[in-house]
Amino acid sequence: MKNKSIKYLLVLVIIAVLATGGYFGYQYYLTTSKAPTAEENSAQVSSLREAISLNNIDAVEFLVKNKVDLEAPFDTSEEKQDNGFTALGWAIFSNRPEIAIYLINHGADVKAEVPLGSSMLFWAITYNMEDVAEAIIKNGGDIYPRNGYNPALHAAVQGRNKIVEMLAAKGILPDDHHENEENAADEQKTLEK
Questions:
Q1: Rg over CA atoms, the chain
Q2: What's the CA gap between 91 and 102, in Å, rounded?
Q3: What is the model's pTM?
Q4: In this predicted model, what pLDDT tens digit does every residue of 114-138 receive, in sequence order?
Q5: How many helical (H) and strand (E) elements, i.e. helices and strands, does the chain have?
Q6: Residue 111: count of CB within 10 angstroms of its CB
Q7: CATH 1.25.40.20 fits 38-192, yes or no
Q8: Closest Cα partner for 48 from 78, 85, 80, 77?
Q9: Of the candidates 65, 79, 103, which has an alpha carbon nearest to the alpha carbon of residue 94?
Protein backbone atom coordinates (compact mmCIF):
# COMPACT_ATOMS: atom_id res chain seq x y z
CA MET A 1 0.00 0.00 0.00
CA LYS A 2 2.82 2.36 0.94
CA ASN A 3 4.63 1.67 -2.38
CA LYS A 4 1.43 2.41 -4.31
CA SER A 5 1.04 5.79 -2.54
CA ILE A 6 4.63 6.67 -3.28
CA LYS A 7 4.14 5.80 -6.97
CA TYR A 8 1.01 8.01 -7.18
CA LEU A 9 2.81 10.83 -5.44
CA LEU A 10 5.78 10.48 -7.79
CA VAL A 11 3.45 10.57 -10.83
CA LEU A 12 1.74 13.70 -9.48
CA VAL A 13 5.09 15.40 -8.89
CA ILE A 14 6.23 14.56 -12.44
CA ILE A 15 2.96 15.92 -13.90
CA ALA A 16 3.28 19.10 -11.85
CA VAL A 17 6.90 19.61 -12.99
CA LEU A 18 5.95 19.06 -16.64
CA ALA A 19 2.98 21.41 -16.41
CA THR A 20 5.07 24.12 -14.74
CA GLY A 21 7.84 23.72 -17.29
CA GLY A 22 5.32 23.90 -20.11
CA TYR A 23 3.79 27.06 -18.71
CA PHE A 24 7.13 28.82 -18.28
CA GLY A 25 8.27 27.60 -21.69
CA TYR A 26 5.16 29.08 -23.26
CA GLN A 27 5.69 32.39 -21.42
CA TYR A 28 9.30 32.45 -22.65
CA TYR A 29 8.11 31.82 -26.20
CA LEU A 30 5.61 34.70 -25.97
CA THR A 31 8.23 37.15 -24.74
CA THR A 32 10.98 36.15 -27.16
CA SER A 33 8.99 35.44 -30.31
CA LYS A 34 9.85 37.60 -33.27
CA ALA A 35 7.79 40.61 -34.27
CA PRO A 36 5.06 39.95 -36.83
CA THR A 37 5.83 40.63 -40.48
CA ALA A 38 4.08 43.52 -42.21
CA GLU A 39 1.68 41.05 -43.81
CA GLU A 40 0.92 39.37 -40.48
CA ASN A 41 0.45 42.76 -38.80
CA SER A 42 -1.91 43.89 -41.57
CA ALA A 43 -3.97 40.72 -41.12
CA GLN A 44 -4.09 41.25 -37.35
CA VAL A 45 -5.16 44.88 -37.73
CA SER A 46 -7.86 43.85 -40.20
CA SER A 47 -9.04 41.19 -37.74
CA LEU A 48 -9.04 43.78 -34.95
CA ARG A 49 -11.19 46.12 -37.01
CA GLU A 50 -13.67 43.30 -37.67
CA ALA A 51 -13.70 42.22 -34.02
CA ILE A 52 -14.51 45.78 -32.95
CA SER A 53 -17.17 46.15 -35.64
CA LEU A 54 -18.81 42.91 -34.45
CA ASN A 55 -18.48 43.97 -30.79
CA ASN A 56 -16.47 40.79 -30.09
CA ILE A 57 -14.51 41.60 -26.93
CA ASP A 58 -13.06 38.08 -26.74
CA ALA A 59 -11.46 38.43 -30.17
CA VAL A 60 -10.15 41.90 -29.26
CA GLU A 61 -8.60 40.52 -26.06
CA PHE A 62 -6.99 37.68 -28.02
CA LEU A 63 -5.49 40.06 -30.56
CA VAL A 64 -4.22 42.47 -27.91
CA LYS A 65 -2.61 39.58 -25.99
CA ASN A 66 -0.92 38.59 -29.26
CA LYS A 67 0.53 42.09 -29.58
CA VAL A 68 -1.55 43.57 -32.38
CA ASP A 69 -0.51 47.14 -33.20
CA LEU A 70 -3.22 49.27 -31.56
CA GLU A 71 -2.00 52.43 -33.28
CA ALA A 72 -1.95 51.11 -36.84
CA PRO A 73 -4.46 53.06 -38.96
CA PHE A 74 -7.52 51.17 -40.07
CA ASP A 75 -8.63 51.13 -43.67
CA THR A 76 -12.35 51.76 -43.31
CA SER A 77 -13.44 52.27 -46.88
CA GLU A 78 -13.37 50.15 -50.00
CA GLU A 79 -11.66 52.98 -51.86
CA LYS A 80 -8.98 53.00 -49.12
CA GLN A 81 -9.23 56.76 -48.82
CA ASP A 82 -10.52 56.93 -45.25
CA ASN A 83 -7.31 55.85 -43.55
CA GLY A 84 -6.70 56.85 -40.00
CA PHE A 85 -8.88 55.35 -37.30
CA THR A 86 -6.84 53.62 -34.66
CA ALA A 87 -8.41 50.71 -32.77
CA LEU A 88 -9.57 53.03 -29.99
CA GLY A 89 -10.93 55.61 -32.42
CA TRP A 90 -12.83 52.89 -34.28
CA ALA A 91 -14.21 51.42 -31.03
CA ILE A 92 -15.48 54.84 -29.95
CA PHE A 93 -16.81 55.80 -33.39
CA SER A 94 -18.53 52.39 -33.63
CA ASN A 95 -20.08 52.93 -30.17
CA ARG A 96 -18.33 49.98 -28.49
CA PRO A 97 -17.72 51.29 -24.94
CA GLU A 98 -16.60 47.98 -23.38
CA ILE A 99 -13.98 47.53 -26.07
CA ALA A 100 -12.90 51.18 -25.85
CA ILE A 101 -12.31 50.87 -22.10
CA TYR A 102 -10.40 47.62 -22.61
CA LEU A 103 -8.18 49.26 -25.24
CA ILE A 104 -7.52 52.29 -23.03
CA ASN A 105 -6.61 49.99 -20.15
CA HIS A 106 -4.16 48.18 -22.45
CA GLY A 107 -2.27 51.24 -23.63
CA ALA A 108 -4.21 52.60 -26.61
CA ASP A 109 -3.28 56.21 -27.36
CA VAL A 110 -6.11 58.45 -26.14
CA LYS A 111 -4.57 61.39 -28.02
CA ALA A 112 -4.62 59.76 -31.45
CA GLU A 113 -6.42 61.80 -34.08
CA VAL A 114 -9.82 60.93 -35.44
CA PRO A 115 -10.05 61.32 -39.24
CA LEU A 116 -13.19 63.42 -39.07
CA GLY A 117 -11.34 66.31 -37.49
CA SER A 118 -12.80 65.93 -34.01
CA SER A 119 -11.44 64.18 -30.95
CA MET A 120 -12.11 60.84 -29.31
CA LEU A 121 -13.62 62.76 -26.41
CA PHE A 122 -16.15 64.35 -28.80
CA TRP A 123 -17.41 60.96 -29.97
CA ALA A 124 -17.45 59.49 -26.46
CA ILE A 125 -19.64 62.40 -25.32
CA THR A 126 -21.81 62.21 -28.45
CA TYR A 127 -22.49 58.49 -28.00
CA ASN A 128 -23.16 58.88 -24.24
CA MET A 129 -20.11 56.80 -23.33
CA GLU A 130 -19.48 58.53 -20.03
CA ASP A 131 -17.06 55.87 -18.72
CA VAL A 132 -15.03 56.15 -21.92
CA ALA A 133 -15.01 59.95 -21.75
CA GLU A 134 -13.82 59.77 -18.14
CA ALA A 135 -11.05 57.33 -19.10
CA ILE A 136 -9.95 59.60 -21.95
CA ILE A 137 -9.78 62.60 -19.61
CA LYS A 138 -8.00 60.65 -16.85
CA ASN A 139 -5.44 59.25 -19.30
CA GLY A 140 -4.45 62.60 -20.82
CA GLY A 141 -6.68 62.73 -23.90
CA ASP A 142 -7.27 65.87 -25.94
CA ILE A 143 -9.54 68.06 -23.79
CA TYR A 144 -8.69 71.58 -24.93
CA PRO A 145 -11.04 73.74 -27.01
CA ARG A 146 -9.98 74.28 -30.60
CA ASN A 147 -11.48 75.09 -33.98
CA GLY A 148 -14.67 76.38 -32.35
CA TYR A 149 -15.24 73.12 -30.46
CA ASN A 150 -15.28 73.06 -26.68
CA PRO A 151 -15.66 69.60 -25.10
CA ALA A 152 -17.01 71.10 -21.84
CA LEU A 153 -19.74 72.95 -23.74
CA HIS A 154 -20.51 69.81 -25.75
CA ALA A 155 -20.80 67.79 -22.52
CA ALA A 156 -23.00 70.47 -20.92
CA VAL A 157 -25.35 70.57 -23.93
CA GLN A 158 -25.54 66.75 -23.85
CA GLY A 159 -26.30 66.80 -20.12
CA ARG A 160 -23.09 64.99 -19.18
CA ASN A 161 -22.61 66.81 -15.87
CA LYS A 162 -19.93 64.47 -14.54
CA ILE A 163 -17.81 65.13 -17.64
CA VAL A 164 -18.38 68.89 -17.26
CA GLU A 165 -17.16 68.63 -13.65
CA MET A 166 -14.08 66.60 -14.65
CA LEU A 167 -13.18 69.12 -17.35
CA ALA A 168 -13.79 72.04 -14.96
CA ALA A 169 -11.36 70.42 -12.51
CA LYS A 170 -8.77 70.58 -15.32
CA GLY A 171 -9.62 74.22 -16.04
CA ILE A 172 -11.87 73.70 -19.09
CA LEU A 173 -15.22 75.45 -18.71
CA PRO A 174 -18.25 75.43 -21.05
CA ASP A 175 -17.70 79.13 -21.88
CA ASP A 176 -13.96 78.61 -22.46
CA HIS A 177 -12.62 79.74 -25.84
CA HIS A 178 -8.94 78.82 -25.46
CA GLU A 179 -7.51 77.28 -28.57
CA ASN A 180 -4.98 75.12 -26.75
CA GLU A 181 -3.15 74.69 -23.46
CA GLU A 182 -0.45 77.25 -24.34
CA ASN A 183 -3.01 79.94 -25.21
CA ALA A 184 -4.86 79.20 -21.98
CA ALA A 185 -1.63 79.64 -19.99
CA ASP A 186 -0.79 82.88 -21.84
CA GLU A 187 -4.29 84.23 -21.25
CA GLN A 188 -4.06 83.31 -17.54
CA LYS A 189 -0.73 85.21 -17.24
CA THR A 190 -2.34 88.24 -18.92
CA LEU A 191 -5.23 88.14 -16.46
CA GLU A 192 -2.85 87.93 -13.50
CA LYS A 193 -1.01 91.15 -14.50
A1: 24
A2: 10
A3: 0.69
A4: 877 678 998 899 999 999 999 999 9
A5: 10, 2
A6: 13
A7: yes
A8: 85
A9: 103
